[in-house]
Queue: 4 jobs
Job 1
Amino acid sequence: MSDPAAVPPGARPATPKFELHVHLEGTVEPVTLLGLARRNGLRLPADTVAGLEKMYRFTSLDQFINAWIQTTNCLRTAEDFRQITVEYIGRVVALGWPPMSRPSSRPQSGLKDGDRAR
């Protein structure tokens, strides 16, 4: 879902929707992942959005785990987490869904519970 604003109003579900639980790392769009990797000086298996979209179309648990590792490895700073949080909330709000999750981070990200993006 690259452009939630492009969803025609009539295409939105009539029944209210919301997410009870979401892994924030799983909400990262390919274009964002590419930017995060570049900002943090990291290499990914693909260097284009189209290439990363292929990585996100997994058909096995191993491919899913690989995509998850590639994504989470690019999340290094509080700014990275702020960016993906703001983008995710923007998408769900555009769909009329209230965001209902508290982000968490992996210990190796270097972020602690009290850290805040500015």
Note: The radius of gyration is 15 Å.
Job 2
Amino acid sequence: MTMRTTGPLFAIAIGLILLGVISYVVSEASSMTALIPALFGMVLLSCALVARNPGARIAAIAVAAVFSLLGCAASLWRALPGLDFGAISVAKASQLLMAILLLAALVSCVIELRRK
């Protein structure tokens, strides 16, 4: 397994980790829930590392796909109700960015699973 095949998952995982840390810092460390994107990023990063092993590739990418789907659905579930584009909070922005990144991870996983 080359880095090329798991590269998008690595990049998305790093993006989620950065999103979580930045959200936590911007919200002045008022809530540990700001680190939720970072936790999803660490799971995806772990899956990307495991996927480099040819024997565990399909299982690791499938786990990453499931986490991506659940995380995307959960973050949209929290972000969309009461969304006001005029004044968006740090929490809502973080949830929307997390949903976008996890949707990209899900698409990347599906493409990788379909690859022979």
Note: The chain has a mean pLDDT of 87.
Job 3
Amino acid sequence: MAFCVCNTSAIAFAETYKCTINGATTFSQSPCANGTSTPANIPTGEVAAADYHDALKRNEKDAVALKKLEDARHKDELQREKEMKSLAAKNAQAEHKCAALRANEKWAKEDLANATMKTEKKARIKLNRASEKTALSCKTN
């Protein structure tokens, strides 16, 4: 986890003085000898202890919230994957059933083509029923 303290108001300032001597500017921790110094607030980069601890607490809360979100996302992904597998299995089963129905229809056509005068009516009924079953159960592309 990355940690960042971004509260600039909590940055401490060191006692620093800006001195100008003969046109040259210098910085010092003590006032200039000739008395022309002005205080210069330069941040030291130090953070107040209370702000640091507050940031740690916020970071811990954010880490807990992030973990909850990641867990919820993972759970949703697993559920979607399960649903997709179930749907794929149902589609495969339906396609297998359609393949069997198409085969029966094909065989019924062959039976009609090879039927005698005596068996032709029965073969035609068988073909019509096989065609209807295929049309009801299978999508035609």
Note: Residues 1-12 have pLDDT under 50 and may be disordered.
Job 4
Amino acid sequence: MRRATERPPVPTEHAEAVAFREWLDTQVALGNVRRYTHLAQETFTRSWGTKRRNHLEGVRPGFPDYCVVVGKGDGVTGLVFVELKRPRGPQGGANGTRLSDEQVAWLRDLNRVGDDCHAAVCYGSGEAIDFVKKFL
């Protein structure tokens, strides 16, 4: 039994990513989302060999986790980029999931591309879903 002072656990980023992916799959089936991908960066690794190989291949830190192509039918109406973080804790804290300088720069630059390109950091799948829905 949980004591009154204990707070419920905050879902992991992985659990939130799975929930967001399931919602995206539904939107693809409904025709609201043309396609999407999760961009596994692997920039955080202990292996210097992997870091070097990634760097040589062009992997750069900070690029958002998801790229979503939105549009109806054969039409493409925009690109939506989502940097997914763990949901905020019960007291509103970000659970140590602050943005790196590189992430801030990528989000800023992507939002400057034009009216059909949108990027944001979203804390949890609910925020990510709400953000993408604005452009469907």
Note: The chain has a mean pLDDT of 86.
